[in-house]
Design a protein that fits this description.
single chain, about 120 residues, mainly beta, 7-stranded mixed sheet, about 55% strand
Amino acid sequence: QVQLVESGGGLVQPGGSLRLSCAASGFIFSLYVMSWFRQAPGKERESVASVQNTISGANYADSVKGRFTISRDNAKNTVYLQMNSLKPDDTATYYCKAVHVYNRSTYWGQGTQVTVSA
């Protein structure tokens, strides 16, 4: 049974930090590109960051470059998103996504809420 379980969301003040985690199970984690997406109320889901299965190589949305860092631990089947210098515009539900490097099989997590507010 495939599962992606996000955690680490919450309420934080502007300028603060959060670290999201996404624990994967039920598939070969090292064969999947892992990504974080987010969706704010009334807006489309957007890509935030992705990391290749080989660990080297990460991509970021322009809006989070220099503030967010994606990383993965293949031994723990977990991908992380370190979010620093958070802004109110970062408020959204954050989702973890896994895509197989060859056959493009795709899995999504259920999301974790991040709220940036004073």
